[in-house]
Amino acid sequence: MITMTEIARLTHVSQSTVSRVLNGNPKVDPETRERVLACAQEHNYQLNALAKGLQGSRTQLIGVILTDISNGFFADLAKQIELEARKKGYSMILFNSRYDQTLEREYMNVVRRYHVDGVLAVPIHENSREWAESARELDIPVVVVTRHAEGMDSVHLDHDRAGELVAGHLLERGYERFLFLGRSYDVKYIGFQRGLAKLGVDPGRSVQSIEFHDDEQLLRDLDNYFQINEPYRIGIFAYNDICAIHGLEVLRRLHIPVTQRCGIIGFDDTEMSAYMAPKLSSVAQPIQEMAAEAVSRLISRIEEPGPHPVWNRTLQPSLAIKEST
Question: DSSP letter at 149?
Fold first, then answer.
């Protein structure tokens, strides 16, 4: 296997420069970095990351813990995180908690054993005492992604503002009663209610939420809801695109025409939303910006250790309007 000395000879730079590049030091000329990395890749150079971690050096690894990799949004987020990390000389180890707190705790222990340099995480309960203690016990930088965790570095979308944008859009399209598919304490729903109230709608009379666990329950609940609200056009806001797609299927089974009798908008603007019939309107998240901000902050904390003020970056949503509204 090729050595750092041989890479230095082949690329006409010093061995110390090669070391800085392979260890992810950002203070290297970009052209030189690309030349060194290309040479290392061509000759299959391998850093023994775990051994470096055991010696107390950086491993150039970051752990990424997501809640549901089957959700297209999180798959896209993982891809963007990997791209941003690679730009800075880091590799990624991905974990999928599946909204299971036992798995989440287990994966927090695994990243410790791998001696990763830092963690990007979408916690199941970002403001719980248990999560805060688990993150603190890692004793490495942790940045929370997509959610705002009190007292921790976070980058997330303004869900409250997203709800307000949806409220304005559905009202503008002439819908008269409003339904949220999701938990009643979801910040998106709170913003949705607030947005409608600002526009003169009484949330107590005209807005309702439905939390469901399977399509059969959703079918019963929607059937009952539409019968009670027979004279009105219904605007539906789903907490993510997957939920909205379930809603579209149930509406089809109930023979309720979308856009004529009701409109439905999701959240995340995943790729699948463009392939539905009708094409699904959704709230778009700036995934690339979110990943870049999170990775940049994490690596800054890794490479400049010490006390830092808590960093909270709030990104703004936009609406991707398609056929379903």
Answer: -
Given a contact cutoff of 8 angstroms between Cβ atoms, the answer to whether 123 and 64 are in contact is no
**27-35 average pLDDT score:** 86
In this model, does residue 50 exceed pLDDT 50?
A: no
Q: Which residues does 194 contact at the CB level (< 8 Å), separation at least 6? A: 160, 163, 164, 167
Instruction: Evaluate if pTM is beyond 0.90.
Output: no
Tokens encoding 303: 């490479």
| pLDDT tens figures, 250-276 | 999 999 999 999 999 999 999 888 888
The CA distance from 254 to 198, in Å, is: 32
Please choose, from the candidates 268, 287, 97, the residue with its C-alpha nearest in 3D space to the C-alpha of residue 182.
268
Closest by Cα among 105, 145, 101, 150 to 127: 150
Question: 234-238 and 207-210 as β-strands: parallel, antiparallel, unpaired?
Answer: unpaired
- 3-state DSSP call for residue 121? strand
